[in-house]
Amino acid sequence: MAKNPMLKFVTIEKQMPEKRPPSLRAQDFHEIYREYAAEKAAEQAGRCSQCGVPFCQSHCPLHNNIPDWLRLTAEGRLQEAYEISQSTNTFPEICGRICPQDRLCEGNCVIEQSGHGTVTIGAVEKYLTDMAWENGWVRPIKPVDERSESVAVIGAGPGGLAAADALRRAGLQVTVYDRHDRAGGLMTYGIPGFKLEKDVVMQRVDQLEAAGVAFQLNCNVGTDISFDAIRGKHDAVLIATGVYKSRELKAPGVGVAGVVKALDYLTVSNRLGFGDEVPEFDSGELNAAGKRVVVIGGGDTAMDCVRTAVRQGATSVKCLYRRDRANMPGSQREVANAEEEGVEFVWLSAPKGFTGSPVEGVLVQKMRLGAPDATGRQVPEVIEGADYVEDADLVIMALGFEPENLPEAWDAPDLGVTRWNTVKSDFHTHATSLPGVFAAGDIVRGASLVVWAIRDGREAADAILAYLAEAGASAVAAQ
């Protein structure tokens, strides 16, 4: 082995893992990227410049020690590399697959900025953690000491599961409550298998269950159990429900058959992948087969919908977005994947209404980008007289998500929320207005990334441990 396996970015070009051909991958819901071979993973990791100020690390919400585990991967010390990766990231195999690296670590890579092409951080992370599972390096969670305190985690998405992991490792008794029949939140039912195969999520859920985390599934807080009852049963509570309420479009024809919500559509598709019976798919209500599909939106959820529709056998798939390609919020890598699979993007286009019942078309108004707003983004403006109708048999609304009104749903009027209905919590401790109740993830931030939810869950777990320690010390002092 060479003395220095790093700094190869000048002589070795960036190379992503091979993608399965579009004609093949569009036939199934398996992940589209193949694995690196060991030599290729080491070679690509060795392109890292080991810069003194690692911008990849500072732009990672978890501040993963990326240069360190890249160096260890290049040296063939894979188990050590995994240990460093796992030390700051509860689910590195998930982040390696679905993080928008082009906007985070890779987008801020120093050698990318100098024109040499970024280090393929996400692909190496995926390879590294898949190797860890295959070789038994992912060890069971075994607390050193069991503690009597119990914590309720409401929501089994990435934030809730990350907190449950940290709290259980500390020996606390943890119960996770979730409305769905499987844990994982949007990782299970919102993200398609071609980006995140479900066994990757379920193996982490299994690890938590084996460690003694209790899961109360099919449990709607406020209906099946009251929020007050949960608070009474546990010493602390973490709210990590995420945001599931779809943003609505106010336009003529919104309620007609064939105009559906993105999350409903994706959930049905993911349930099929688990082998569930799904009447909404069998009836054709949430099935794109043989249909002209129009997806409205420009985020990652819209990309998930268009690529799912292709795999279901749609005759055509178009994506309408009111801004241009450069200003869309979704991952550019996902846009490219969608285009390869036959999706047509109709830029600077916004829905004005819908024709037919069931739907037969989208009334589209053409847009142009005007002056920037307070955030610096150019504001879309309607071009008068340029309306037209886009034929459609299925319209999928992917306009983003909003939080539910938890104080109302949970009969908890003293739970503080913002004017957007996100839960108010302390920036550092994640403590809410209610004693012993904390909040983390999208229910605080609004719709965001899985990696931010993981960070929030880990931070909230630390805050809960500090809160319980203080409560214990106060109880001892009072005796």
Automatic annotation (TrEMBL):
- Highest taxon of the lineage: Bacteria
Any GO molecular function: metal ion binding
Where does the record place the FAD/NAD(P)-binding domain? 150-457
Question: Which Pfam families does its entry note?
Answer: Fer4_20, Pyr_redox_2
Keyword terms of this UniProt record: 4Fe-4S, Iron, Iron-sulfur, Metal-binding, Oxidoreductase
Indicate the segments forming the Dihydroprymidine dehydrogenase domain, all copies.
25-136
Matching InterPro entries, A to Z?
Answer: DPD_II, FAD/NAD-bd_sf, FAD/NAD-binding_dom, GltD-like, Helical_ferredxn
The name this protein goes by in its record: Dihydropyrimidine dehydrogenase subunit A
**Organism this protein belongs to:** Allgaiera indica
User: By which gene is this protein encoded?
Assistant: gltD
